[in-house]
Amino acid sequence: MEFALNKIDKHWDNYRSLNQHMNDLKRKVMELNGMKEDTDSRMSAELLPRKKLKREVQIWLENVERINGEVQSLDGKIGESSRFTRGFHAEDVLKRIREVEELIQQGKFQDGLVVDDPQWIGQVLSKTTLSGEGAKACEEEIWQCLMDDEVRQIGVWGMGGVGKTSIMKCINNRLVEGMGRFNIVIWTTVSKEMSIAKLQKDMASKIGVSFCGDEDEITRAGMLFEALSRKRKSVIILDDLWQKVPLDKVGIPESSTGSKLVLTTRSFDVCRKMSCRAIKVKPLVEEKSWKLFSEKVGRGILNIPEVELIAKKIVERCVGLPLGVITIASCMKDIDDLYEWRNALKELSDRKKSVNGLEEEVFLLSIGLQCNKLPAVADQL
Question: Residue ranges of the NB-ARC domain (predicted)?
């Protein structure tokens, strides 16, 4: 009889204290959720490229979500209970209070939220500001193709000096700095004198594959293929292709779901042969060419009417190639001698006649070499 009375007394004590305990639980849950909001803000600041959340932080966030759901469920059960059965939930409330208090202590993370991510591969590249709305439009078209699962291979093509590499450097940096959809970005320059061995070694260094030095081409291709096949969320950028690259001989897997191949080339035929979604980079229109030239050469020089007239003829001969515009503007920057401007125009005209059918960029690059300005702008090819 005494035992039964004690049980009843304890039950009524639990009933009377339940509201207080429940209020304590809700206050502590509110404190915990405040910590979670602060943690979310810290994550936005700390979760940079090459970083990932600590496993203990991931577990803590999962436990916060779980305890919120359990407290909400418990609150609902208590609300539906009768006066007699409410007291039976007291132990559950006290248990949740202890769990929430533990999570509050665990959630301080004084040593930070993130650690280095060894799975991250990519390098931010130096770049120049894109010239003209056309270049920006091309960049966005390439970006949309990268985000489209149906597009596996992308070919960016156009004349030398039109800005293909500059656009792709912007794309590379957006991928590296964002690092959301892709966590591996590999940039490799191929160039006209393509060497499969050199291309293999360059790619191997980017993804951490070590060659002993005595492997043949087929063995190196197999090693690269095996390593790259494991890296599903990847973008491989092959810059400055002059001919079709035999991907199997290099060791590059055919693009599949989660991976992309992007190439830049002067030839639409290369894009076609490599089954790419072709995106053409067009030269600048005359108005944009003149604006770019004016910005680079200095507007003060162009206030001289005779110089401005010659400068416009020079810009016409650049045929909308940003590299040519920038190269020649750099050569003529701050030069106010009318004779030198006339000589530059004559030099351009003579050289253009001498190349006789070769691509416009050939004669523009020769001018760049003569001015010793080419190294400063060569990265815009």
Answer: 140-299
Cα gap 241→270, rounded to integer Å: 8
Lowest mean pLDDT: which of 201-205, 287-291, 376-380? 376-380
C-alpha angle 102/107/108, rounded to 5°? 120
**Beta-bridge partners for 241:** 265
d(CA 35, CA 329): 56
Q: What span, in angstroms and rounded, lies between the C-alpha atoms of 25 and 19?
A: 10
Spatial separation of the C-alpha atoms in residues 114 and 117, rounded to whole Å: 9
What are the pLDDT digits (tens) for 25-76? 899 999 999 999 999 999 888 877 667 788 999 999 999 999 999 999 988 8
Query: CB–CB of 157/142 below 8 Å?
Result: no
Q: How far, in Å, CA of 372 to CA of 216, rounded?
A: 41
* Separation of CA 274 from chain center: 24
Q: The tokens 């494991």 sit on which residue?
A: 230
Measured CA to CA, the distance from residue 381 to residue 163 in angstroms comes to: 6
Give the start-end residues of each E strand in 192-350.
234-241, 259-265, 277-280
Residue whose token pair is 């004084």: 110
Cα torsion 29, 31, 37, 38 to 10°: value is -150
Please give the backbone phi and psi of residue 150, each rounded to the nearest 5 degrees, phi first: -80, -20
- DSSP reduced 3-state for 237: strand
How far is the CA of 219 from the CAs of 205, 224, 229, 306, in angstroms?
16, 9, 15, 64
Distance between CA 254 and CA 125 in Å, rounded?
26
Ordered DSSP codes for 332-365: HTT---HHHHHHHHHHHHHHHHHHTTS-HHHHHH
Q: What is the pTM of this model?
A: 0.62
377 close to 330: Cβ distance less than 8 angstroms: yes
